[in-house]
Amino acid sequence: MMPSLLLLSVNLLAGSICAADTAVAPGDKNMPRSVSVSFPGGAKVQAEVVFTADKMTRGLGNARGLAQGRGMFFLYPAEGARRFWMKNMLFNLDIIFMRHDGTLGRIFRNVPRPAPGAPDANLAAVEGYASYVLEVEAGFADKNALKEGMRAELNFSTGAVSAALAVAPAAVAAPVAAAKPAPVTKKAKGRKK
């Protein structure tokens, strides 16, 4: 590991923790803004890193879509049980829970966006044990044969992901938004260590 990446990794582990232990406190200029995630088999995702409570709560809600090979990476100060739901989502997702060393935990494929006007109680929700959670376009995990226990390489950067590359253009997002949402609620119990 290169010294600067090692320093960044140590800085991440020693970062400030919010009272609720759900997000890292903002303000540290050394916190990563993007991450390149490389999976076995050669698949790569360039993702925006979010670590503040506000950005984690908003997530990809109301986004039109994701460009191929892009995602959102949720960074937590410590491993723990995590729960994600599809509130305000306009497209389906694959949601990948990861351990601190990049080992893939639970992988949820094609988590459905909510039906228009669906009450919160009917939204798809997934749970797992993780330090990191990666959201990517639906179908990515199957296309790249991702399996629990595989290990991804994480390369954090303090540089931002280009906004133009992070969100799919309307022409790409429109077919996804037109797909019929699945009315099923997905719930799973997180794995404890």
Keywords:
single chain, 193 residues, alpha+beta, Jelly Rolls, seven-stranded mixed sheet, 5 helices, globular, disordered N terminus
Report what the structure shows.
This protein is α+β, with helices and mostly antiparallel strands and 193 residues long. The chain has a single domain, classed as Jelly Rolls (Sandwich), CATH 2.60.120.1140. The protein has 5 helices and 7 strands; from the N terminus they run αββαββββαβαα. The chain has helices at residues 3-13, 53-58, 140-143, 163-166, 170-178, and strands at 34-38, 44-50, 70-85, 93-98, 104-111, 125-137, 153-157. Strands 5-4-6-3-2-1-7 form a 7-stranded mixed beta sheet. Helix 2 (53-58) links the parallel strand 2 and strand 3 (70-85). The longest helix has 11 residues, at 3-13. The two termini are 27 Å apart. Residues 1-22 and 164-193 have low confidence and may be disordered.
Helix content: 10-25%
CATH class: Mainly Beta
The succession of helices and strands, N to C, reads: HEEHEEEEHEHH
Number of domains: 1
What's the number of helices?
5
State the strand order across the main sheet.
5-4-6-3-2-1-7
Count of strand segments: 7
Quickly give the CATH architecture. Sandwich
User: Could you report the average pLDDT, rounded to the nearest whole number?
Assistant: 77
Spans of 5+ residues with little confidence (pLDDT < 50)? 1-22, 164-193
Strand-pairing-aware structural class: alpha+beta
Q: State the fourth-level CATH superfamily.
A: Protein of unknown function DUF192
User: Per DSSP, what share of the residues sits in E-state strands of 2 or more residues?
Assistant: 25-35%
Termini, distance in Å?
A: 27 Å
Gyration radius, rounded: 16 Å
Largest sheet report = 7 strands, mixed
Shape: globular
Look up the CATH topology. Answer: Jelly Rolls
